[in-house]
Design the sequence.
């Protein structure tokens, strides 16, 4: 056995052991998740945060909408709010949002908060399902005061399964080896745009500097170099398109259940 094959087999065995430990007593997550992104109107961030803090979260709970996490970009010039919601199903989601939007308390809070103009200028909300290799998605102090990183990968057509296999068999274990915490991994639901070419996931790090150091070490790890080379040889090229890797550092809001 040559050195590259030994590295690949060792890493795959470690990933299999980690996955087995994670899934042996945990049922598959069949929930539907919604990653909502609000582009905030100029000068309205405080008003939007107050509306969530004082009204929206409680009304979400009232109508069966489970809040997982709320984040703002670390860069203060990036005026967007990201938040992750969870539902038993798409049908449950539609019923909950209908009840929420028609609730008189919400209508009053919305009207009062927008007396001086809209708080949000754009909404994006892809529906997601966890990958089979995602850790269980929990709330609480998962970052221990650090930062979250939202990463989105776009693959060439037909290669998302190859990318999944590399994450499942190698990448997650190597991320953990180099001090990165795997929080959640998602695919878009099949009816969503670019569902067949998109992987979305969250990591946590002690800091942005720690993230850079971890990724520098990860990229130089012989196990990663071998895994990447083998996966790209099998696929006939890169598993991501040009500029197909996006990264954004986020910090939890003070009302986020996950921090």
Sequence:
């Amino acid at each position: 056995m040559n050195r590259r094959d030994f590295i690949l087999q060792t890493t795959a065995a470690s990933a299999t052991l980690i996955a087995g430990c994670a899934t042996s007593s945990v049922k598959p997550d069949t929930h539907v998740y919604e990653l909502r992104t609000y582009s905030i109107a100029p000068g309205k961030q405080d008003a939007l945060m107050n509306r969530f803090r004082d009204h929206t979260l409680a009304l979400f709970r009232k109508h069966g909408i489970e809040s997982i996490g709320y984040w703002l970009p670390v860069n203060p010039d990036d005026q967007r709010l990201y938040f992750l919601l969870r539902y038993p199903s798409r049908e449950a989601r539609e019923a909950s949002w209908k009840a929420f939007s028609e609730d008189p308390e919400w209508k009053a809070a919305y009207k009062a908060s927008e007396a001086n103009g809209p708080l949000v200028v754009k909404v994006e909300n892809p529906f997601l399902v966890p990958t089979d290799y995602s850790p269980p998605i929990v709330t609480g102090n998962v970052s221990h005061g650090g930062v979250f990183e939202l990463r989105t990968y776009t693959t060439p057509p037909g290669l998302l399964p190859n990318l999944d296999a590399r994450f499942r068999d190698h990448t997650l274990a190597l991320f953990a080896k180099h001090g990165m915490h795997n929080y959640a991994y998602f695919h878009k639901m099949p009816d969503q745009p670019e569902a067949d070419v998109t992987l979305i996931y969250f990591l946590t790090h002690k800091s942005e500097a720690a993230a850079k150091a971890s990724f520098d070490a990860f990229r130089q790890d012989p196990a990663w170099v071998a895994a990447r080379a083998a996966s790209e040889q099998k696929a006939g090229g890169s598993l991501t398109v040009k500029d197909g890797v996006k990264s954004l550092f986020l910090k939890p809001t003070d009302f986020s259940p996950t921090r």
In short: The chain has seven helices and nine strands.
